[in-house]
């Protein structure tokens, strides 16, 4: 019986949200790809996971099947940077910590994948980033210390791969 009885007020809120959904999704998608490209230019190769980036696993499928991207992407946190991540997440002023993707509020969610289904999976911590509707400069101010941490030294992933540090 759950979900069978929806109040008129709930229907009104859902319909009102549908009116602006296209604008909200376009904004979050645009900001997410801008941030993903900015981060990719500063960190070791392979650490930014966004299907719209040509170097990302699955990019060819994404390019074939999609016209745009959502506001969610990930950054692989190198093993040598994992210890400092909780303090940086706590210091974030605009992002909240949570895992409810696609909403109006920007979220950060550190996670690990204990079982990988394919060869593209990364061991260790992956930071999921969901872009909402907040000011881009405020969002970048929260992300920049995390990007600086990831970019600060040569990266040793938990898989044993060593990536050279990129010059800025």
UniProtKB/TrEMBL annotation:
Keywords linked to the UniProt accession: Lyase, Pyridoxal phosphate
Membrane-crossing residue ranges in chain numbering: none
Gene3D superfamilies: Aspartate Aminotransferase, domain 1
GO BP terms in the entry: L-cysteine catabolic process to pyruvate; transsulfuration
Family matches, as Pfam families: Cys_Met_Meta_PP
Sample GO molecular function, one term: cysteine-S-conjugate beta-lyase activity
Superkingdom, natural source: Bacteria
Matches recorded under SUPFAM superfamilies: PLP-dependent transferases
InterPro entries xrefs: Cys/Met-Metab_PyrdxlP-dep_enz (IPR000277), Cys_b_lyase_bac (IPR006233), PyrdxlP-dep_Trfase (IPR015424), PyrdxlP-dep_Trfase_small (IPR015422)
Cofactor: pyridoxal 5'-phosphate
Record family assignment: Belongs to the trans-sulfuration enzymes family.
Cited PANTHER family: CYSTATHIONINE BETA-LYASE-RELATED
Designated name of the protein: Cys/Met metabolism PLP-dependent enzyme
């Amino acid at each position: 019986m759950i979900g069978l009885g929806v109040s008129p007020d709930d229907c009104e809120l859902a319909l009102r949200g549908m009116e602006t959904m296209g604008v909200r999704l376009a904004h979050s998608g645009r900001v997410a790809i801008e941030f993903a490209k900015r981060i990719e230019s500063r960190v070791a190769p392979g650490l930014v996971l966004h299907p719209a980036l040509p170097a990302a696993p699955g990019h060819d499928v994404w390019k074939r099947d999609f016209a745009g991207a959502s506001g969610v992407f990930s950054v692989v946190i190198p093993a040598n940077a994992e210890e400092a991540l909780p303090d940086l997440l706590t210091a974030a002023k605009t992002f909240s910590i949570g895992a409810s993707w696609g909403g109006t509020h920007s979220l950060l969610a550190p996670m690990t994948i204990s079982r990988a289904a394919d060869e593209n999976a990364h061991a260790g911590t992956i930071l999921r980033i969901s872009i909402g509707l907040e000011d881009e400069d405020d969002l970048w101010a929260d992300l920049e210390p995390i990007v600086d941490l990831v970019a600060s030294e040569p990266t040793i992933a938990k898989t044993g791969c060593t990536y050279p540090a990129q010059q800025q």
